[in-house]
Amino acid sequence: MAADKGAVRKVLDKAKADGRTALTAPEGKALCDAYGIAVPQEGVANSAADAAKLAGAMGFPVVLKIVSPDILHKTEAGGVLVGLKSTDEVSKGYETILANAKKYKASAQIEGVQVQQMLAGGQEVIIGAVTDGSFGKLVAFGMGGVLVEVLKDITFRLAPATKDDALSMLDGIQAAEMLKGVRGSAAVSRDALADLIVKVSELVTDFPEVAELDLNPVFATPKSAIAADVRIVLDFAPPAPRYRPSQQEILTSMRRIMQPDAVAVIGASAEDGKIGNSVMKNLINGGYQGQIYPIHPKADEIMGRKAFKSVKDVPGVIDIAVFAIPAKFVAQALVECGEKKIPGAILIPSGFAETGNVEGQTEIQEIGRKYNVRLMGPNIYGFYYTWKNLCATFCTAYDYKGHAALSSQSGGIGMAIIGFSRSAKMGVSAIVGLGNKSDLDEDDLLTFFEQDDNTHIIAQHCEDLKDGRSFAEVAKRVTKKKPVVVLKAGRTAAGAKAASSHTGALAGNDKIYDDVFKQCGVIRANSLRDMLDFARGIPKLPTPKGENVVIITGAGGSGVLLSDACVANDLKLMAMPADLDQAFRKFIPPFGAAGNPVDITGGEPPKTYQNTIRLGLEDPRIHSLILGYWHTIITPPMVFAKLVVEVVEEMRGKNILKPIVASLAGDVQVEEASEYLYDHGIPAYPYSTEIPVAVLGAKYKWARGAGLIR
Amino acid sequence: MAADKGAVRKVLDKAKADGRTALTAPEGKALCDAYGIAVPQEGVANSAADAAKLAGAMGFPVVLKIVSPDILHKTEAGGVLVGLKSTDEVSKGYETILANAKKYKASAQIEGVQVQQMLAGGQEVIIGAVTDGSFGKLVAFGMGGVLVEVLKDITFRLAPATKDDALSMLDGIQAAEMLKGVRGSAAVSRDALADLIVKVSELVTDFPEVAELDLNPVFATPKSAIAADVRIVLDFAPPAPRYRPSQQEILTSMRRIMQPDAVAVIGASAEDGKIGNSVMKNLINGGYQGQIYPIHPKADEIMGRKAFKSVKDVPGVIDIAVFAIPAKFVAQALVECGEKKIPGAILIPSGFAETGNVEGQTEIQEIGRKYNVRLMGPNIYGFYYTWKNLCATFCTAYDYKGHAALSSQSGGIGMAIIGFSRSAKMGVSAIVGLGNKSDLDEDDLLTFFEQDDNTHIIAQHCEDLKDGRSFAEVAKRVTKKKPVVVLKAGRTAAGAKAASSHTGALAGNDKIYDDVFKQCGVIRANSLRDMLDFARGIPKLPTPKGENVVIITGAGGSGVLLSDACVANDLKLMAMPADLDQAFRKFIPPFGAAGNPVDITGGEPPKTYQNTIRLGLEDPRIHSLILGYWHTIITPPMVFAKLVVEVVEEMRGKNILKPIVASLAGDVQVEEASEYLYDHGIPAYPYSTEIPVAVLGAKYKWARGAGLIR
């Protein structure tokens, strides 16, 4: 059924003309009718027979109510009867109400008796819509009563929501089981509920002035979902949508910015300790092969490179200008960048919005927009793009090439990324500081990294999303191709308060981030270490072809903890088929435990690990392996590591690629063995049963979201 | 009110005589009455006036029911009236019922009319008791309906529960807020509910044959808590309580076992690769100064030590015998140990219950009991007690002395403990393998470590607790003095299945472990790394004197993540008093953020860290500090580390001791700085904002449980 948008427009125009921001009940009903949102049926009868007919058509029980402009207190007048269950009761009820009304006020003008479908039974649920400052229109679903009010058991999706989105909401609440029928009640119609959610999401999308909408309660039964009450709040002055260049425009600039052939350093300096000196050193010592133009008001040459007074004096084309000058000089230099048609300004200087200088930041934003110069920062450490040997930053140089692209809103977190990457040998393609995000933000980076062949995974730390809606739209597309991990800080009220004192960002309801990230296929990291471990581990793993995970372990104790971790990370331990169980048993001691985990027991020689791992890789019913190693003299750590790599490479030769992660329990030699395994494509962790499984779980989360596993 | 135990005994004896395992409703009521558990009031009236009087005394509304041995179907006979709201209605109701009864069956013998209090309104809750295989009697509490049935929102405590235990249960469910009154309903009487819980817990404790008890629903109102329905299941053949020596006996043996002056190695060997050889090497190379007696059927001397054919041939006293012989020879050698009056046998050999050889294990258990030899294992790596330089194990030697005593049920986890300890320089007092736990278990270790001055924290990995009741009793006492951390594996159904294939242990409901650990002040670790990090970090921290935590950070971004972590770990960020805020502001740049976190901003010199940390330590309103460091050229990592230690030592000089943890964000040099800080008593972590806060949170959890913070 196509929505009757004209009817809605009429109601909203009238409310606007009246200067109202809330709709009356009949107006709310009119909107519901226009979008096919089921509400209780009703009609006005002018005879007992009429009333009985109406009631018969809508189904029992019904409510009868007197309709009279002269009777305000209907109940007091005996003008309301509830729970009438048959045509007979309705006929009689009609007469009773009329008689009561006449007795109450003989002169009353009676327009008839309203017959209304009476809702009862079924599950009471809530469907609503809100307008979020960052994400815009969101549709919400939860169970009625205490579950929403006390336990906050509610779930959100971006509007408009697809039918699949809506169905996922029904499973997205803690009390999901209740919809399937518990304590003798029947299962509700998932179809009817999902339809209602979709329609609500379409209504608020089509009419942005609908700021809030509540259907509460909705009675959900095995056949229908009917909204017993509608509440609608309007806002006729919604904020103007944020300006966004087209994806193609973004990409054109971002390619030149992230992979520049010529870099100007505004405020370049030969003096140790100056930021402009650190930037020059990092560019040169980092091995950057493009042009480097120091910009300095007086110098002729800095660190062996010819210096210029302004970017405008540079003869060639410039792709980015790195700013290493105080805040107060930025605007003027930025104008010159604009005139020189430089597509990107890397604004290291602090002293803008984060210190209260909001006007200063607005000024540079306007210059950037006017000249089409994209701004990174201000208040950042700069950025790295390793495949160009580019360290456009005042931090230490970084050169371990790889495929993880990371970004951070905060400089501190950026430094943690650099340190961890170096220490854990996590190869990176890029590390980017976003700071105040006056212009470039997470979605611009996603757009670039999406098509950057050097990048296989994108991991972002953020405290807010200036434009959650754009982020979600881009992320939904990008996650189909590459995993995107986000560490959203400020998830708790206390954290959000700190976030707000830090960047002036207002954190929304954290559950919204959780749900929207899931809707877009984004993997949410719960901690800084998780984000780093995911960025490091996920790209090493081939995409799993199915849900069947098998644990092979030399330590029964690790097997138990690994199983726990599988459940915690939504991984499915394969139910071991009898023939496969037999096949494993052939390799392990009689007192070992087959099943899953396959417990090969602790005292086994390398051969046992080898045979069972080979079987695990060869059998097509198994999709992923988790290895639990136990340090013994019979199979020392490096022997284990090498045999695993050998089997994996043998299988790669047969084009068998499955994700494998490993947990190593043992003395310090397991650290070297873990490193060897990681270097050979197997994420492996000493002294931990949780991290390997969390990494595999994150890979699965991504693969499911991208539709690669069904 | 003292319980009427005689009345209960009478009811139970009758049920037993009848061969019943369930009680009738009146019998259930009799038990409730005996323990002062409120049930609806009732009485039998023989006149209308009588009925009215009874009803008036118990309060309206009431239910009337005919009492007649000749009328079985009361409702059919018109013999039941519900919801009577006044004396008048009751009087008339009495007459109506009598008239109906006579009409129904003129010959019926009428014994009167039962007047019963009718419960309605208030919150419906569930109070119950269950018998757990490991913990014995437990009392349970939850909200009625879907909250328990669908969301499993229920909490347990060991019975008998104190009033404080009971009150903590009311706050221990997710929906706790509902008891405080939501949606216009009044708060229920916490006192009445807690009383009911205590009484139920006493009833099942006094009468172990009460296997299950359900009060469902209990109507909780602002004034009372009344059980509308009682269900009781009996078990007249409860398992015999496990034999436990007295705490003094345990201690006497454990002291000799853990700190032996003479060790026999049964199966000692000079041959490389043999377990008996590894044990000898570890003892000798580990630097053990006591007597070492190799036991071997033929050798005269092994590794320079005189060998004996049997422990019985050794002239002196022996404290422990380490077994390095196959399972089949263990029993005979154990008898000899018994005859030699050796108090402890360290049973390394596998091949007992874990391989299905249950009889073999029972046999050695019986020998141990007969001769009073305590058994460690079988199926273990042995144990370490560093302060005696004792490595009674076939694993690698370990000698880094410290104050954490660790144990593991699994050998693999034991090796992970050893590797992590060595790598992270976690000083340990002991590492113990418990394996099959045929005798010695976690509570024996707790009893020893409680009084061992070398041990400041106890951390235990377990897959089951053979005797959760004993563990809980001992833990409750020990945690008052020292923190106890437990990693309970098999927390999920999948994990529990693996645990059961591994050790034959049946895992109970994981929520029971959660709740009982909390009741006993035990800190539950969620992961292997958490257990290890807690064992390493907690003993370094002084006990906090109060709940006020302040974050001082150079990286605003770390501040946000640290705040998030505080909430996740139940830490309270102090609301900064105005004068203290002013005091901090004096030290930080104008655009830094005071409040909490105190954001000193990134570009600050060492002095700023120094001043703010000193202020944080000096001000008595602040009880703990969390530091967030950001690597800059102005304050490099080691400069930061040293200045922190300097300030902390200055304060120690003034006897100011507060817990401090640190999160270091920066390049790889922060690893060395973290190590330096840890070595000087400040748990510090590179690239993580979560671990430091989790460690501090665990210290607080312990201190609160031990009653050191109120």
* Total domain units of chain A: 4
> Oligomeric form of this entry?
homodimer
Number of strands of chain A: 30
The level-1 CATH class of the largest domain in chain A: Alpha Beta
Structural shape of chain A: flat
Largest interface: A-B, 98 and 98 residues
By DSSP (H or I, 4+ residues per run), the number of helices of chain A equals 23
Poorly predicted tracts of residues of chain A: 500-508
Fold-level CATH name of the largest domain in chain A: Rossmann fold
CATH superfamily of the largest domain in chain A: Succinyl-CoA synthetase domains
Main sheet properties of chain A: 7 strands, mixed
Can you characterise this structure?
2 copies of one chain form a homodimer. With about 700 residues, the first copy, chain A, is α/β, with parallel strands linked by helices. Helix content of chain A is about 40%, strand content about 20%. Chain A folds into 4 domains: about 1-35 and about 120-240, D-amino Acid Aminotransferase, Chain A, domain 1 (2-Layer Sandwich); about 40-115, Dna Ligase, domain 1 (2-Layer Sandwich); about 245-540, Succinyl-CoA synthetase domains (Rossmann fold, 3-Layer(aba) Sandwich), CATH 3.40.50.261; about 540-705, Succinyl-CoA synthetase domains (Rossmann fold, 3-Layer(aba) Sandwich), CATH 3.40.50. Chain A is built from 23 helices and 30 strands. In chain A, helix 3 (about 50-60) crosses helix 4 (about 85-105), helix 10 (about 330-340) packs parallel to helix 11 (about 360-370) and helix 20 runs parallel beside helix 21 (about 635-655). The longest helix of chain A is centred in the N-terminal third of the chain and has 18 residues, at about 85-105. Mean pLDDT of chain A is about 90; it is low at about 500-510. At the A-B interface, helix 5, helix 12, helix 15, helix 17 and helix 18 of A face helix 5, helix 12, helix 15, helix 17 and helix 18 of B.
